[in-house]
């Protein structure tokens, strides 16, 4: 029987490979986690922007007020009296609701579920709704402008938070902000 050369790694080669793998993982894993967190924040910001665009578009198209309001969307009959962390919805309102400090929904257009538990959405000025008027601008008789909705993760670091800013003209943008 013929003997061939041994195959496999030596202990030294195995130790070097494990050390290189450990170094690679110690650099890659935190970067990967940060990328996932940034993606989740951007996605949540885009969901809020979508709701604002739907409300503005409907207000222009149907010539009546539409609002995006904080709501507990897990309820059987959601109303506009929740917090942004419970979800939000786009609703139509009665003509002439301008200046009202609350939202009276005529029809629910679309619901968005609550964000994940480790994510917070808050308004520094306690706004619970954004009302778009018939011309697509925002009802400036209620609230402070610009309206800001801050999105953060529980373990927020550096500039990984997002701010959805709505101007009086109705334009909404997502900005990266410090925690």
Number of separate helices:
1
Counting helices, strands and paired strands, the structural category is alpha+beta
Give the biggest sheet. 4 strands, antiparallel
Per DSSP E runs of 2 or more residues, the count of β-strands stands at 8
Can you say what the CATH homologous superfamily is?
minor pseudopilin epsh domain
Binned strand content: 25-35%
What are the secondary-structure elements, in order, as H or E? HEEEEEEEE
pLDDT < 50 runs, ≥5 residues: none
Name of the level-1 CATH class: Alpha Beta
Structure description:
The structure is a single chain. The model has no long low-confidence stretch (mean pLDDT about 90). This protein is of the alpha+beta class. The strands form 2 sheets. Strands 3-2-1-5 form a 4-stranded antiparallel β-sheet, with helices on one face. A 4-stranded antiparallel β-sheet has the order 4-6-7-8, covered by helices on one side. It has one helix at about 10-60; strands at about 65-70, 90-95, 105-110, 120, 130, 145-155, 160-165, 170-175. About 30% of the residues lie in helices and about 25% in strands. The protein has one domain (about 10-175): minor pseudopilin epsh domain (minor pseudopilin epsh fold), CATH 3.55.40.10.
């Amino acid at each position: 029987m013929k003997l061939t050369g041994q195959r496999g790694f030596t202990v030294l080669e195995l130790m070097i490979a494990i050390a290189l793998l450990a170094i690679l993982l110690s650099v890659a894993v935190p970067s990967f986690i940060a990328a996932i967190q940034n993606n989740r924040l951007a996605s949540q910001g885009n969901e809020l922007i979508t709701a604002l665009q739907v409300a503005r578009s409907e207000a222009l198209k149907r010539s009546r007020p539409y609002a995006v309001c904080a709501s507990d969307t897990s309820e059987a009959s959601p109303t506009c009296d929740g917090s942004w962390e419970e979800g939000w919805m786009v609703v139509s309102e009665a003509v002439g609701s301008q200046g009202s400090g609350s939202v009276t929904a005529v029809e629910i257009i679309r619901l968005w579920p609550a964000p994940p538990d480790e994510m917070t959405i808050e308004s520094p000025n306690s706004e619970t709704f954004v009302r778009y008027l018939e011309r697509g601008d925002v009802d400036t008789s209620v609230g402070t402008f610009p309206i800001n909705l801050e999105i953060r993760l529980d373990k927020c670091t550096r500039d990984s938070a997002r701010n959805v800013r709505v101007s009086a003209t109705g334009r909404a943008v997502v900005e990266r902000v410090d925690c």
